[in-house]
Amino acid sequence: MNDASSTGPASPSKTHVLLASLIGTTIEFFDFYIYATAAVLVFPSLFFPAGDPASSTLQSLATFALAFFARPIGSAVFGHFGDRVGRKATLVAALLTMGVSTVVIGLLPTYAQWGVAAPALLALCRFGQGLGLGGEWGGAVLLATENAPPGKRAWYGMFPQLGAPLGFLMATGAFLSLSAGLDEADFMAWGWRLPFLGSAVLVLLGLWIRLRLTETPAFQRVIDRQERVALPMRDVLVLHPRALLLGTVSALATFVLFYLMTVFALSWGTSRLGHAREDFLWMQMGGVLLFAATIPLSALYADRVGRRRMMLVASAAVMGFGFLFEPLFGGGGTVGTVAFLAIGLAIMGLTYGPLGTILAELFPAEVRYSGASLAFNLSGIFGASLAPYIATWLASHHGLGYVGLYLSVAGALSMLALLAVPRRLHD
């Protein structure tokens, strides 16, 4: 993936490339997470009929899950153009799709104003967010890894991965600031809309940076050799089904872990364990700092010993952490909750850092955008979309120990898939 570029426009600096890959995913994940936070704290009471709070929360989490089912469609649409037209133009379009959907959410009427049309429009915008992120992630990873020098592919590939913790910190920080500066009535009346509307500024910044990019060396080589395929997604499904299956299952534990540590933990901690919303968000932010810190550590280790081996170590850690789920989180105490979030999110960084690189390496350059994106987003369906819903149901009916078991099973499945990943992957 680090092929020499052919003649053409002057290539941007490595710093500019890495910044472009990082800022796009940061914006996309910021948009994604402000929805996740609002789906727990705001949307149940504003966008769904008054009644049983638990039922409203489950309905809100169902709209949260909708984006994950849209993401493979985004993979197909944006992946097609990413493998046919180019990485740059497709990344710009994906960022616009996500940004417009997010800003419109900030303008939506509530259930009290428009009735059932309000949650329907909310679901439509959430679907748009999923489409955008479905095309964003794969392109950002390829932008970084296809520009990487020899021996630093995982290091370059971790820059777009850093967008996840940075976006989460920005989203959580925005809601914490609003909670501190507004009373509850103002926050629920209009304050929650500000992060969604403010996303427009970030999107404009991201577009300005990305419009200055050129094509990656690997894709330029595909163009020069006339290796572009007519229907990239068809080739992924017909010619590379094993790579697609292994990539999807390899990422499963990563998705289950993250959305248990963020969406489910926030919902359960503030509703069943009695933590104040602001206190729990601060605890989560501390854990996400560890998430951000372990991403580069895992990338450095992955470049030394291999992406596959690093992912195996991380998946084993996910399995083990599942058995700590109830002992640490079940008591409801501050110390146990802080330890729970710190350990879980630190492990999250270990598994997330090399993930983008290994998924990209599973596919040849001519279908890499489509293949890596589809594997990542199919894993999002199976590992993340229903994770908060399943975990809430398991914890309510059987206890938190079963949520931990659910996580350990996901870790085991990812380990089995990684063991089947070929040692020699695509350059």
TrEMBL record:
Domain Major facilitator superfamily (MFS) profile: 17-427
Annotated localization: Cell membrane
Annotated Gene Ontology cellular component terms: plasma membrane
Topology within the bilayer: Multi-pass membrane protein
PROSITE patterns on file: MFS (PS50850), SUGAR_TRANSPORT_1 (PS00216)
Keywords: Cell membrane, Membrane, Transmembrane, Transmembrane helix, Transport
Matches recorded under CDD domains: MFS_ShiA_like
One protein family per Pfam: Sugar_tr
Protein name in UniProt: MHS family MFS transporter
Biological source species: Marilutibacter aestuarii
